[in-house]
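sry for the spam today, last one i promise. struct tokens for design, 438 residues
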């Protein structure tokens, strides 16, 4: 039986269908609301709004569950690779050995970037943030690889996906090398996706980079955990911009710009800056917790809280484990890890944080993992962007294939001036009641 909700406005009642998802979550379908009632819904920040139906990622914020195409993220982090997870997200199933080989060969074939793109890098100001550079470069890819047309065959679409996944990684490493004034390292067909990235970042003619499989595994986990997160801010941006039927590069570039913000992907950089701040001021987290509680202080505890998770973010749990493991294996100490532990310990006991359901999110420990790998601070959000690419691509693909596809165009409640007349410039600022001087 189809469930419905009843809405009563001025004594008139309307039946609204209820849609039930495969995990039992329910939504009231209001797509006919304005047509039937003349009213719209108002939901700032879309906290109660489902913008699409999706088969890609399931998350339960109360129970702390995250699954890609039904598979728990914990299992993927333990057994899968980033490339295999990307294939899963984009194609809705785990690849066979043959599929995976074909996909890996495609990533290898499309890993080089046009040499002319170097000129772009060389002309950015030296202090430009890598996220701004990355979003511009991804948009520029369209000029170099314009083949993806509106209606196109599957093979062509798959090549564009491979180009993005592979070239964005190359561009990120290139931008780092160029920022140092060093020679760019080219991708190698002999290395896996993650090992290739580390090699492009850190190999040098005077100091060959020795690939450590523990670091490669940590990077695989980092990228798997970031690969998708249903309708978060940057993915919603990709879907919204994509809904205007722009090319995929432009939609992904919009996602990168959204991710840059400190309330979203930029939080991983902000967490490390905050932990350094605590460490530099003596290591006591108490004053920072008290600032976070203070309503008159805009300071927030970075890496804490989430729009959907009202419990411990399952990704944060895995990230914390990875962080401990990698430092132990490398026999390294990171003073920021001690600060993070102390901060978490104090926050999870603090009534403000308990009452507001504020727990560590994925960004809380991820910065320490990235530091252990050797990634510089201003590249942290770029690392998140590379990881989120499979999610953006699969969500874009799903949205353009959706038979219910529509241009995204929210409405508003207008609170501005009522109609008034245009005033010629010479009459502006005059008392409207005063008579013109004769
Ligand atoms: N520190 C202190 N207080 C917080 C925090 C925090 N990190 N996060 C939320 N709150 C408080 C707010 O002050 C508000 O309190 P009030 O109800 O007493 O006024 C309440 O919790 C709800 O906050 P909102 O901003 O409405 O919640 P929202 O769901 O919009 O916030 C967000 C989610 C933006 C992630 C928020 O928790 C935050 O700013 N966290 C810090 C930044 C961060 O770590 N971002 C990464 C998120 S994960 C990701 O994008 C990959």
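last one done:
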């Amino acid at each position: 039986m189809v469930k419905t909700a009843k809405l009563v406005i001025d004594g008139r009642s309307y039946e609204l269908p209820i849609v039930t998802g495969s995990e039992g979550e329910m939504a009231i379908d209001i797509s006919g609301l304005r047509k039937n009632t003349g009213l719209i819904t108002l939901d700032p920040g879309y906290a109660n709004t489902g913008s699409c139906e999706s088969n890609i990622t399931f998350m339960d914020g109360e129970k702390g569950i995250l699954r890609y195409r039904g598979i728990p993220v914990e299992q993927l982090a333990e057994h899968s690779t980033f490339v295999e997870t990307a294939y899963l997200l984009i194609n809705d199933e785990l690849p066979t050995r043959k599929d995976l080989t074909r996909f890996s060969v495609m990533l290898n074939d499309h890993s080089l970037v046009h040499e002319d793109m170097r000129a772009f890098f060389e002309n950015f100001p030296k202090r430009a943030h890598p996220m701004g550079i990355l979003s511009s470069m991804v948009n520029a890819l369209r000029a170099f690889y314009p083949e993806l047309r509106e209606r196109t065959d599957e093979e062509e679409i798959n090549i564009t996906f491979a180009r993005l996944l592979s070239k964005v990684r190359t561009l990120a490493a290139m931008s780092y090398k160029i920022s140092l004034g060093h020679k760019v390292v080219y991708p190698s067909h002999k290395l896996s996706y993650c090992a290739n990235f580390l090699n492009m970042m850190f190999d040098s003619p005077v100091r060959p980079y020795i690939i450590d499989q523990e670091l490669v595994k940590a990077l695989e986990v980092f990228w798997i955990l970031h690969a998708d997160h249903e309708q978060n801010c940057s993915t919603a941006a990709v879907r919204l911009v994509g809904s205007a039927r722009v090319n995929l590069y432009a939609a992904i570039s919009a996602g990168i710009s959204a991710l840059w913000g400190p309330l979203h992907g930029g939080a991983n950089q902000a967490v490390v800056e905050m932990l350094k701040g605590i460490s530099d001021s003596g290591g006591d987290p108490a004053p920072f917790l008290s600032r976070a509680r203070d309503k008159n202080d805009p300071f927030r505890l970075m890496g804490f809280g989430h729009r959907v998770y009202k419990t411990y973010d399952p990704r944060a749990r895995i990230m914390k484990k990875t962080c401990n493991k990698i430092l132990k294996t490398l026999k390294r100490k990171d003073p920021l890890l001690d600060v993070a532990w102390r901060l978490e310990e104090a926050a999870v006991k603090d009534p403000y944080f308990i009452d507001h359901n504020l727990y560590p999110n994925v960004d809380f420990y991820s910065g320490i993992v990235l530091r252990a790998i050797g990634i510089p601070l201003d590249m942290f959000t770029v690392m998140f962007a590379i990881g989120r690419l499979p999610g953006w691509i699969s969500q874009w693909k799903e949205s353009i294939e959706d038979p219910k596809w529509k241009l995204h165009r929210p409405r508003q409640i207008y609170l501005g001036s009522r109609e008034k007349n245009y005033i010629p410039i010479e009459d502006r600022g005059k008392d409207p009641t005063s008579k013109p001087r004769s």
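The first strand starts at residue 4 and ends at 9. ok im logging off now
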